[in-house]
Amino acid sequence: MDTLLQDVRFALRGFAKNRAFTLAALLSLTLGIGVNTAVFSVANAVLLRPLPYPGADRLVILWNRSPGLNITQDWFSTAQYFDIKNGNSSFDQVAIAIGANYNLTGFQEPERIGAIRVSSNLLPMFGTKAALGRLFTTQDDSPGRSGSAILTYGAWARRYGSDVHAIGKSMVLNGRPFEIVGVLPPNFALPREVLPTLYGASEPDLFLPLPFDTAAVHLRTHEDYNIVATLKRGATHQSAQAEMDIITARLRREHAEVYPPNGGLTFGVVPLFEQVIGDVRQPLVILLAAVSLVLLIACSNVANLLLSRATGRKQEILVRSAIGATSARLLRQLLTESLLLALGGGALGVLLAQGIVQGVRALGPGSIPRLNNVDIDVRVLLFTLFLSLCAGVVFGLAPALRLARFDLREGLQSAGRGMAGSGSLWGRRNHLRRFLVVFEAALSVMLLIAAGLLIRSFEKVQSVPAGFDARNILTLGLTMSGHKYDKRAAVQLGYQLLWDELDRLPGVSAAGGVSALPLSELFSWGPITVEGRVPAPGENFINADQRIVAGRYFQAMRIPLLKGRLFSKQDIDGAPPVVVIDDNMARQLWPNEDPIGKRIRYGGINDKFPWQTIVGVVARVKQYALDSDSRIAFYTPHAQQPLRAMTVVIKAGVSPAALTTSVKQAIARLDPDLPIFEVRTMLNRVDESLARRRFSTWLLGLFAALALMLSAIGMYGVMAYLVNQSAKEIGIRMALGATQVNIARMVLRAGFGLAVFGAVLGIAGAATLTRFMRNLLFGVQPMDPMIFLTVPVMLAVIAIAATYFPARRAWRIEPMAALRSE
Asked: What number of other Cβ atoms are within 10 A of residue 657's Cβ?
């Protein structure tokens, strides 16, 4: 222990005497370890930390899939719920839920509040208990009972001031009273990333019961429900999946009119943890790989610094060897110094990681699951400690071994040797330094190519035609609920009065509404039948997106009319049903015909819904994301199919944010009990749809820039060292007639050669690495020639810049002064 303390004191004194070296080494390590700690903390929270529910490893979520109809993830009908509940042997419990939004009234201002309606066994499945009151019981599942409600802790504190007497009070939802029977604990939540309901808020404020009558067992329409199950002990999601395959095979046989053979109905069983993680695993793994490369570059830089410092310490090692220090003793001293540097860099790296984590949480998109849980916990600190120790060994071992093995006799003889040894620009002793520079350059090229591909993909996505113009558009949610809107005519009249009121507002050029706004979480699809079309074998219907529009929605969104007409005031309830289709449907169903005047209807070939005549064709709209294709789609007029809930769209001639107050006032004049929610600009929605892709691109680009900076610093340091050590060689060359241009060319060629070699290795590594990024790219190939050519050129420019100053120092060397110094 005394010897170790002596080594530590000696190392600290050495660091204090060489402050420039110490600061440079600590800066490199702080950057390398800091970004690794920050990204690992994100991976720890998202990928490694278990879900905060007891027995979460046994929880699974089910999905309704029909790949033949282009349905990869759909919700369930009530009949399918009972099919699974009564026909399985793999689950202990099967629960059902559906999201909903309600107008909460009775307070000073109406509020739109998100809820989840659940069977009584769902909350206990997630291991929660009531903090106040009770949870739902099986009696709450019975139809005809008065409404009950359970508040989340946040809603209870916000709306009722944490009043314990709130239990038993009544709250009015959509004009109907519900009794508050319980409050959930403060640490319990079921966000949409855990329970991805079709409707409702991302963070629901209350839970309501979900009673079913006897007809629900047979109802196979309205596939709007989530199903969650708990695996039995010994069962796996694979065995449960096999059982679901048996159930769906039976359903395809018994209900072929609902589940046609070409649809390929199946129920997918997904572990809840995998559901929450979604598709973020691959981007996080790539980011972890990227920051690992940054750390390797930082370690290479520090190793080069140590090698340069080692040259100046040969006299010290020579003296210590002469008085009896063994190689093992010297090696321990040198490794102690390396580990101290690494631990110092690790400590500073944790502080840097704290700042990065705060920035990630502030700037990271809400679509990344569990991002709010990212923090520096014990696991992250242990990771940082392990990383620091490994880094200390990695960058300190080679210099330590070289010095520890320094031969006493060789040291005594080297004073009289010429330039052929370690002082030569291309001397054998400098191979390791040059290798480290090549290594850094190669890693930088790999990161820059990966970042370049993501940047090009992001640019491609941004340039995708969305089918609408998002500029100067204000959007908001509105639901006409309550007894006054029980009848269709009241809903139709209410919205028509709203459009008239909005059109009169100063600065409004067009106002309308839609049931499913593009790039929102709202969507609707279903079966349609085309008149006169001969179905393919096994086909009962075609699947298509349906959107209900009102007012001047197409004009507000600037969705171009390509053929025919839009809806008019004559397209009302009782008039012949009409539809407008998108050009995608027109191309697929009538590739060589004019679709105007053709007819479609809801349902399969045996359904008896009325035929709807196509009166117009509009441009295809990117409904789900800019980087994915939407289904064929058709629009129906709100006047013929009125909905209570709509997304209001307002085209403004001024900044849309300036309209918010006047729009709220206009709605309040129509009905003061109607709350509005989700007030956002359309540009904001477009921006949010790109958030995850932008986040990954931004982080990887930042790490690539950091790697390039460290690589340039490393190249500058090595070339400056080599020029300094080769002063005698350069002096002799100049004495023999070499010009300043010759010397500069020699030094620049040396640095440029290292960069070229590193670029070649980096391109080879990137060709392998980018294959794993294929799923993250859009409109760009993993071997994109533009990126693979641009990045090496960029590195060459950086290499020339980094080598220029050592080259300038070299051509300014005075030959006689250099020879006298030797």
From this structure: 13
Closest CA to 196 of 205, 204, 187, 188: 204
Q: What is the pLDDT of residues 201-244, one digit of tens each?
A: 778 999 999 999 889 999 998 889 999 999 999 899 999 999 99
Phi, psi (5° rounding) for residue 559?
-85, 115
- 665: how many CB neighbours lie within 10 A of its CB? 11
Tokens standing for 649? 């769209």
Whether the Cβ atoms of residue 98 and residue 210 lie closer than 8 Å to each other: yes
Query: Dihedral of CA 413/414/418/420: which sign?
Result: positive
Per-position b or e across 426-442, b if 16+ CB within 10 A of its CB = ebeebeebbbbbbbbbb
CA distance 343 to 337: 10
Measured CA to CA, the distance from residue 666 to residue 19 in angstroms comes to 68
**Contact (CB, 8 A) for 118 and 95:** yes
Distance CA 193, CA 370 (A): 8
Residue 608: Cβ within 10 Å count: 7
DSSP string, 95-149: EEEEEEEEEEESSSS-EEEEEEEE-TTHHHHTT---SEE----GGGGSTTPPPEE
Measured distance CA(445)–CA(289) in Å, rounded: 14
Token readout for 145 is 């009972």
Q: How confident is the model at residue 418, as a pLDDT?
A: 43
Q: Rounded to whole angstroms, how far apart are CA atoms 564 and 549?
A: 17
Instruction: For residue 171, list its beta bridge partners.
Output: 178
Look up the pTM and report it.
0.80
What does 476-522 look like in DSSP terms, one character per residue?
EEEE--SGGG-SHHHHHHHHHHHHHHHHTSTTEEEEEEESS-TTSS-
